[in-house]
Amino acid sequence: MNDAETLVAEIHELLASDLGESAQLLADLTCPPHLHSPHLPLATRVSVLTAHTAVLTHQSQHRRALALLTDFVSTPQRAQLTGAQLEHIARQIAHARWHLGEHDMCLAQLRQIPRAHRSVADLARMARCAALLHHQEDAAQLYAELLRLQPRATEALAYLGRSPTGNVGGGSGSKVDGAVYHEPAKLAAARAMVSNLQYAGAADVLRRMRVQAPVAALHATCHMMLGNTRRARALYQRARQLDPAGLSEMGLYAELLASAGDRLDVYSLGADLLRIDQTRAAGWVAMARYFLCLGQLQEALALAWKAQGLEPSCADAYSAEGSVQMALGAFDDACEAYLRAHMLGRSAGTFRGLVQAHVRAGRFKEAFVYAKEMAELMPRSAPALAAVGLVLSHSPESTDKAQRLLLAALDIDPACNDAVAALASLHVAAGSVDEAVELVEKYLPHNDSDDMYTRYADLLTLANRLPQAAANYTTALTINPENERARVGFDRVDKLMHPDAADDDDDPNNNDDQENPPEHMEYADELVDEEDDDAL
């Protein structure tokens, strides 16, 4: 066995042992020289290509796999490849394009395989691509051809409107024209809509499908991005009942639970996922969210990094890091983390993270670019309008427009926390603290989280309504005892209300005037700075 054959065997052994990261490191370092070595037989080089592609596919790096394959067949050595080798590479290219959502190119690639050589898997994938592209006649022809090879292919039977006995019109609601798509095609279509932030349309498609774990999880993600947290939570729970560990959306589920302040549920989710499989990122992402809720930021950051090391293509791991970096005040690092998450899996959540991180870093132009793109992809969406309003609120010339956008967001979704916070900050910046208090009071019943009670208490402190502020800080701490901002705020208000109980010599902060806002307040950080007048 030569070196190249030994390399291929070692790569497959690592993949079989679920050591994908080690296999990728080995393949990236050693495969390229063998691929381009003129001293190796072409069949050996094809084996090395197949092994390297398998590693990249295992790591969900389909774009790199596609580039590797197309580069190989673009060289003059293509003329030396046998028909079987060309068909094998064509299937690999089609596989990569399928996972990238390039259904038209996937179909075109598989058409290069002679009809007599097409397998059941080839025909099934071709038919799915044609169905997703709404080429109904082509899809019907391909499914009919599939049935000749595999008479019990239920996807083909469902699409053609036949019963398992071969009769037309066997299924309820089925149509011969193929208007009723088979389940995998529906799920693929819904995933494509989700990738384009068309959450309402995807939710409508998924609502009509049979309840399966991937369907329920993706449906939950749609509702989470649309702000329907209760519905999202119920669907995530249903998905976990059907598949306790094999779902890629569990990182988002942890984020949903953490945003609601349910620390014990976040911990239970993370512990359960890790008990089932410690080699997947989702459990570590959940635990990172848990430690973030506790305020143990360095521990949370370490767990987010561990999740990234296990699955470099996991967008949720980088989103978790972005949240931790925001809490640490490392806004530049937060921008980088959210950008990586955005590149791996664009969503309303990554858009929101990018906008907020760039705003806190003082990069208003970059924040506006992301906010505008989000608004274009999600028209009349409360989070999108709030994102644009947040950016515009930092420009004195655009405050009126920002206020209109934020109010429009609250008309659509009264529970839009981002819109409430940004609008309250505008009132504070204008010196209208009482209006800010009234605003939060109005929308507090729609979002009774510890964060919202803390914001409300901050404003009450600014308005010098100290007993009320203390009561709301206490409410926030009751919901989340680890809320550091609420704890610091309560201590400050308590000292202001009971100055005789404090030792003025030991605590120089006791001499602060009540009219000065607390240094920990988020609103003080969000006030419009004169230096930012031309930021937008």
Order of helices and strands: HHHHHHHHHHHHHHHHHHHHHHHHHHHHH
Helix content: 55-70%
Spans of at least 5 consecutive residues with low confidence: 163-182, 510-536
If classified by CATH, what would the architecture of the domain at 373-536 be? Alpha Horseshoe
Walk me through what this model shows.
The chain has 536 residues and is mainly α. It has helices at residues 3-16, 20-35, 42-58, 62-73, 83-99, 103-111, 120-132, 136-149, 154-160, 183-195, 199-207, 213-225, 229-242, 250-259, 263-276, 281-294, 297-310, 315-328, 331-344, 348-360, 364-377, 382-392, 399-412, 417-429, 433-443, 450-462, 466-479, 484-497, 522-526. Helix 1 runs antiparallel to helix 2. The longest helix is centred in the N-terminal third of the chain and has 17 residues, at 42-58. The chain is elongated. It starts with a helix and ends in a 10-residue tail after the last helix. The model is unreliable at 163-182 and 510-536 (pLDDT under 50).
Secondary structure layout plus pairing:
Elements lengths: L2 H14 L3 H16 L6 H17 L3 H12 L9 H17 L3 H9 L8 H13 L3 H14 L4 H7 L22 H13 L3 H9 L5 H13 L3 H14 L7 H10 L3 H14 L4 H14 L2 H14 L4 H14 L2 H14 L3 H13 L3 H14 L4 H11 L6 H14 L4 H13 L3 H11 L6 H13 L3 H14 L4 H14 L24 H5 L10
Summarize the structure.
Helices cover 69% and strands 0% of the residues. Among the domains are: 3-73 and 83-156, Tetratricopeptide repeat domain (Serine Threonine Protein Phosphatase 5, Tetratricopeptide repeat, Alpha Horseshoe), CATH 1.25.40.10; 200-243, no CATH class; 373-536, Serine Threonine Protein Phosphatase 5, Tetratricopeptide repeat. The chain is built from 29 helices and no strands.
